[in-house]
Amino acid sequence: MAQKANELTPWVSPLHNWGYELRELRTCRGLSLRTLAKRALLDHSHLGRFERAERMADRDQAARLDGALGAGGMLFRLWERIGDNRGHVANPPVHVAKSSAALALALPEQAASDEEGISVPCRLRDGSVVWVALDRRALLRSGVGLGAVAALGAGSPAAADPGVVPPLVSRARTASAYGPTPIEHLRRARRLLIESDNLLGPRQAISAAREYIDVIKQLRQEAKGSDRHDLLELQTQYGEFLSWLYQDLGDNAKAQFWLDRAFQWSHTVGDVDLTSYVMARKAQLAGDMVDLVDVVDLAEAAQRMARPRSRLAAVARTYEAYGHALRGESSESERAIDHVRNALDGVASDPSPWGGWLNASYVEVHHAQGLEVLGKHDQAADAFGGAIRLLPDGYHRDRGVYMARQAVSLAGARAPEQAVTIGMHALTVAQSTGSGRIVNELARLDKALVPWQRLPEVAEFRGAFDRTIHHEAEMDVR
User: CA-CA distance, 68 to 39, in Å (whole number)?
Assistant: First the structure.
């Protein structure tokens, strides 16, 4: 009888998480330790110790394992983040809100391990705003964070004790012993979390989404046939959703991490539409990160993967349009947006469940974003206004994002009074949802309003925004 594999604890540290992902990739590929070790030119006993986090691979070994497993760089990026997290906690990682790049680059990038801390916006002494990652328990003790910690809850017990099995996992083990795999329940739970995110923002949904992924992984150990396939598909969907939650929170490093996971899992599922969708999401994230190198290439790759004239192809073309705008390619951006507008009626009957939110409002928002980065502020403000009017009810957080972007455009168009009026509404949404995307846009607005800072309305907005975020001196005290 084969020896049972050791239980892994990916939430303990980035090193443990790397070992966990290494084993996941190996088992997904159907490889034994010896087979993988032979392919990667390693000793199989060393490989076992890597998986159990008893030993750290060196750079060459990590690169060879990534190549042997066909991980596309994901495994190697996780390995690079292990060393980034060996510093003292008094030197916290920083996530950029498009400002104070020197400080952001001077501090290590936060790893996307399973139980890391959470990020809060912080104003530096030079007036700029960055995202600072704090330890979750220290965060709860100090009470910081844009009105979000109150909604955060206690989090997973794994954060406090690596030996504790998350409660949802424990309950899933019990439930699966008495009945069929609860796949439909897990699907409904994801739909409810999506609705919660639309209304309340990402923070309340993150811990639940992460625990559901753990539940699915446990259920997959015993599932067979179509149930096993359906569970892996759900795991992919939850991974992509978790990436979106972190993206909205303003934590692009963890968003990228979970998208890489979802992309890997989607290939195992074998669903071309799902893989195309995740690829399109990678293009969207690249746009949010202002990645001028990858954004258009990823969007074009997603279009090649998608079915011709499908909704997913149109979604990817939308992200391509914004990518062209980021690169200053105005005519290419307009051409891509016009293509999507013309395709909207045709894709309405597409049976694929992916990209169902693609509508006129969504397309106009991306058009407006493109106009803004191209410096066409008046046109962008009008386009954002039109998109907001088209937005269906129930998209509370998204409305706040679009309003914040419209306010930035109005400031660029030298209409500060209108900008602060709309910015105040967006700030209210940011406070109620904890959306990092809104905060990032309001940080841009705060900077854009400096020329009119003596106007009473502008001073009122800037003071209100300043009171909702934390300051470098506060972080130094902590």
Answer: 6
